[in-house]
Amino acid sequence: MQFLHTMIRVGDLDGSLDFFCGKLGLVEVRRIENEKGRFTLVYLAAPDDLPQAKGAGAPLVELTYNWDEHDYAGGRNFGHLAFAVDDIYAVCARLQAAGVTINRPPRDGYMAFIRSPDHISIELLQKGAPLPPAEPWSSMPNIGAW
Ligand SMILES: C[C@@H](O)C(=O)SC[C@H](NC(=O)CC[C@H](N)C(=O)O)C(=O)NCC(=O)O
Ligand code: NI
């Protein structure tokens, strides 16, 4: 299993990119615009992780910008921790047998969600699964690109 990213929801995407990239120095490596869901996902890597990010993958920050939501009072800022797994069905079956609720089963073969005892959202992604359509310039590999 490989750690992929931490997702946070941001109310001001430009302001967050100015902070994380302009000031903190992270680098945008991928962007997915979802017209139907009305949200944008922007993946950021630390500069030292860029070579790895273009290879087997590197830990990333995933900014989620919901076009119609800008106030995250009540703790919705934090989204999830994401991991890539070798066999998402086997991992979910093992977790379910261990008493973990699979909040979002891997019906599509690539994404599932569970929650920790304190309700921290955990995203499980199938290694090597096809990615949703992204910007044409994105050249990220299948894994580590989320
Ligand atoms: C690509 C993969 O890493 C994702 O995280 S997509 C997960 C998906 N995200 C969204 O739908 C973004 C918009 C949504 N309104 C939101 O604010 O999360 C998703 O299932 N999100 C739910 C979650 O708990 O992360
Ligand atoms: Ni994610």
Helix and strand topology:
Layout: E1 2-9, H1 13-23, E2 27-34, E3 39-45, H2 50-53, E4 60-66, E5 78-85, H3 88-97, E6 102-104, E7 111-115, E8 121-126
Give average pLDDT, whole number: 85
Indicate the proportion of strand residues.
35-45%
CATH homology group of the largest domain: 2,3-Dihydroxybiphenyl 1,2-Dioxygenase, domain 1
Protein structure class? alpha+beta
Order of helices and strands: EHEEHEEHEEE
Which small-molecule species are bound to the chains here? the ligand C[C@@H](O)C(=O)SC[C@H](NC(=O)CC[C@H](N)C(=O)O)C(=O)NCC(=O)O, nickel (II) ion
Summarize the structure.
The chain has 146 residues and is of the alpha+beta class.
Could you explain how this protein is built, in words?
With about 150 residues, the chain is of the alpha+beta class. The chain has 2 domains: about 1-65, 2,3-Dihydroxybiphenyl 1,2-Dioxygenase, domain 1, CATH 3.10.180; about 85-140, no CATH class. The protein is built from 3 helices and 8 strands. Strands 2-3-4-1-5-8-7-6 form an 8-stranded mixed sheet, covered by helices on one side. The longest helix is centred in the first third of the chain and has 11 residues, at about 15-25. Mean pLDDT is about 85; it is low at about 135-145. This is Lactoylglutathione lyase. GO terms for molecular function: lyase activity.
